[in-house]
Design a protein that fits this description.
Number of strands: 0
Number of helices: 8
Helix content: over 70%
Order of helices and strands: HHHHHHHH
Strand content: under 5%
CATH superfamily of the largest domain: Tetratricopeptide repeat domain
CATH class of the largest domain: Mainly Alpha
Largest sheet: none
Shape: elongated
Radius of gyration: 20 Å
CATH architecture of the largest domain: Alpha Horseshoe
C-alpha cells in the first residue's frame, strides 16, 4: 500500500522522466525519449501528456501509426486543454504523411495557445498556403493564381 509521501515521490519521479523525455525528443533521440516516457506512463498510466508522448515515440521508433494516433486521440479526449497533445498528434500525422490532418491538429492546438512556438514552427515548415482568392474554383485555375499574386503584391492579401 502506497503512502501519501511515496505517491508524491512517484509523481515527481514520473514528471522528471517526462521532462527528460521531452529533452530527448528535442534532440531528435526518440528511442531514448520512448524509454523515459514509458517509465513515466508506468508510474502514472492515466496521464494524457505521457500517453500522447509515448504515442509520438512509438510512431517514430516502432512505426505503429494506428496505435500512436489512438494514444494521442485518447489523451486529447481525456484533457483537451493540453496543447502538447495536439502537437504530438500532428507529428504522428506528419510521420504518416497525412499533412492535412496534421495541420488540423496543429490549428486546434493553436486555438488553445496561439503562441506555442513548437506548433508555429511546425506550421511554418509545412508551408501553409492561403486559401484561394475564389474558393469555389481550384487553386490551379489561371484566374485564382494570378489574382492571388496581384493581391499579394499590392498588400491586399
Amino acid at each position: 500500500m502506497k503512502t501519501r509521501r511515496n505517491e508524491k515521490e512517484s509523481l515527481k519521479e514520473a514528471e522528471e522522466k517526462y521532462r527528460r523525455g521531452r529533452k530527448a525528443v528535442k534532440r531528435g533521440k526518440t528511442l531514448e525519449a520512448l524509454s523515459f516516457f514509458e517509465k513515466a506512463l508506468h508510474i502514472e498510466p492515466e496521464n494524457p501528456k505521457f500517453q500522447s508522448s509515448v504515442g509520438l515515440c512509438i510512431a517514430y521508433e516502432r512505426g505503429k501509426i494506428k496505435e500512436a494516433i489512438s494514444l494521442c486521440e485518447k489523451a486529447i479526449q481525456t484533457d483537451p486543454q493540453i496543447v502538447e497533445n495536439y502537437y504530438n498528434l500532428g507529428k504522428v500525422y506528419i510521420k504518416a504523411k497525412l499533412k492535412i490532418k496534421a495541420i488540423e491538429a496543429y490549428r486546434k492546438g493553436l486555438a488553445i495557445d496561439n503562441k506555442n512556438p513548437e506548433i508555429i514552427e511546425e506550421l511554418q515548415s509545412l508551408g501553409i498556403r492561403k486559401k484561394p482568392v475564389i474558393p469555389s474554383l481550384p487553386r490551379k485555375i489561371f484566374l485564382n493564381k494570378y489574382l492571388g499574386l496581384i493581391l499579394s503584391r499590392l498588400g491586399l492579401r
